[in-house]
Design brief:
single chain; about 400 residues; alpha/beta; TIM Barrel; 8-stranded parallel beta sheet
Length: about 400
């Protein structure tokens, strides 16, 4: 059996490649860093000069992911309306639309507003405007952008939207949100869903578009066969609601839902468009759900995003301290890029620990390490931009929007 020390010796090149190469940055104008970002001047900028922790996107792997999903959707066929809660970036959304996406889905009214203001058409907000604040903002956005849509699962909210839309002299595009396995939202399928759809369709100031049915539990079901079975179960109800609506003469323009985990099966169960999101970057937890060819690892999409961190201290054997901590959403389930033997541990607000056993391949103070985060939705909420990398060179920076603070909620 090969010992860990022998493994390190035989794979020295792999270890070297896993830490970020240091460039000659003595002459880099750090005082001009933000000005260079604002000017889109990335000459001489490498991973080594970036502030840490920060998010880095491998542009080649990212573009490969986008093309893989776009090609799969065309073959299915099914439309793409990718979810932006994962990336929160107009730059990413524009690239998705350039490859054929018909719009995007959003988790908050703020994301909807920011994406629309950035020129993204066909925004579908996947929550209903239950508060007065959200209702007024949904009405205002509808007035600015007639392509904007949102969902409703409650007749009371439908009445409030009808009244507010009438006062503003706008027509809101609405889909009925129906239950698809997650108890967090969605009216019951069958008669209740049909009655809500009829109510929406008969409203003077609402345009009924169809249904939304998000089967989130299916997306993370491990194993392709088990995931397909779960998807069939969760979407059986929406197929019933869709059939009833059509029989009643209602238009069903969209049946929206789906995810990265179920992208290659959702079209078989009545969905007309996919709300997949994680595929652009992938995270360490999603990779474990297994794919069609391997139940242990999901290889359809590459891990294109990592958190770049710096080794700050090394005072104990078999471990180092990094500057990627709880406030940056470090998780014990994170994985170190290129170093599968490393264990990630929490240490505090601004600190994390990388631990290993048996010696060999040890990290040094000042080393840069890239780590795949566990949950993209939560992690991207902690950062203000993506640094876009081609190899070791930084070639662009994309703002992350709709995160926190009064202006973005």
């Amino acid at each position: 059996m090969t010992s860990r020390r022998q493994f390190f010796a035989a794979n020295a090149g792999v270890l070297l490649a896993s830490t970020v190469a240091r460039a000659d940055t003595k002459s880099y104008p750090y005082s001009e860093f933000e000005q260079k970002i604002a000017k889109k001047d990335f000459r001489g900028m490498t991973k080594d000069v970036l502030p840490t922790p920060c998010m880095v996107v491998d542009i080649d792997l990212f573009e490969k992911n986008l093309k893989t999903m776009a090609d799969a959707a065309k073959v299915a066929p099914i439309f793409l309306r990718p979810h932006v809660k994962v990336h929160k970036s107009v730059d990413v959304a524009k690239r998705q639309q350039a490859l054929g996406a018909i719009g995007i889905t959003s988790a908050t009214i703020a994301e909807s507003e920011l994406m629309s203001a950035g020129g993204i058409k066909g925004v579908l907000w996947t929550k209903q405007p239950a508060s007065r604040n959200n209702l007024m903002r949904a009405i205002a956005l509808t007035k600015k952008d007639p392509t904007f849509m949102f969902v409703i699962d409650d007749p009371k909210v439908a009445d409030e939207v009808e009244e507010a839309a009438g006062a503003a002299k706008v027509k809101c595009r609405v889909a009925a949100s129906v239950f698809a396995g997650l108890t967090r939202q969605g009216i019951a399928n069958g008669k209740p869903a049909l009655e809500l759809a009829q109510k929406l369709h008969s409203s003077k100031n609402i345009v009924f578009e169809g249904f939304m049915a998000y089967s989130g539990a299916a997306s993370h079901t491990k194993g392709f066969s088990a995931r397909k079975k779960k998807t069939a179960e969760d979407l059986s109800g929406v197929q019933e609601s869709m059939a009833l609506a059509k029989k009643a003469g209602l238009p069903v323009n969209i049946v929206s839902g789906g995810s990265t985990g179920t992208y290659n099966m959702d079209h078989e169960f009545g969905l007309t468009e996919l709300e997949c999101g994680s595929y652009v970057f992938m995270d360490s937890i999603y990779k474990k759900v297994g794919g069609k060819s391997d139940d242990n690892i999901y290889t359809d999409f590459e891990s294109s995003l990592s958190v770049l961190t710096t080794v700050d201290s090394k005072r104990h054997p078999g471990q180092v301290t990094i500057d990627y901590g709880n406030k940056a959403m470090l998780q014990p389930t994170d994985q170190v890029k290129g170093m599968s033997w490393m264990q990630v541990e929490r240490q505090g607000a601004e600190y994390g620990i990388l631990r290993w056993k048996d010696g060999g391949g040890e990290l040094k103070v000042g080393d840069r390490v890239e780590i795949y985060c566990s949950n993209l939705d939560m992690s991207t909420n902690c950062y203000d931009r993506y640094y876009i990398a081609k190899g070791n060179d930084i070639v662009d920076a994309w703002p992350i929007m709709g995160r926190s603070g009064a202006a973005q909620r």
